[in-house]
Amino acid sequence: MEKSNVFLLSILLMASLFSISHAFQLWGYAIDRVSIRGVVYCSLDGDPSAPPVSNATVYIECPGGSNSTLAQAVTNQVGVFTLPWLMFIANYAIGASRQ
């Protein structure tokens, strides 16, 4: 499987600052789960005018080579994917592959 770079905008990267026992506080609301949505483009530099990649598997795993997939989704015809309701824990690694 060939891995490609995935450029995601507006992801809550603050998740890496909090442990599993704490929720992120935003405007008085505790956020303990997040949903990640994005588009996979056929581009190495994140060019949004590049064509989208359909039928690609997007995955989130624990970093450090453990290869434990926490969630995965497949892009639709226009390259959109959604990884819903992930536990708000630190250090996600996001990747994509297409066979």
Automatic annotation (TrEMBL):
It comes from the Eukaryota. It comes from Arabidopsis thaliana (Mouse-ear cress). Residues 1-23 form the signal peptide. Keywords: Signal. This is Uncharacterized protein At2g41390.
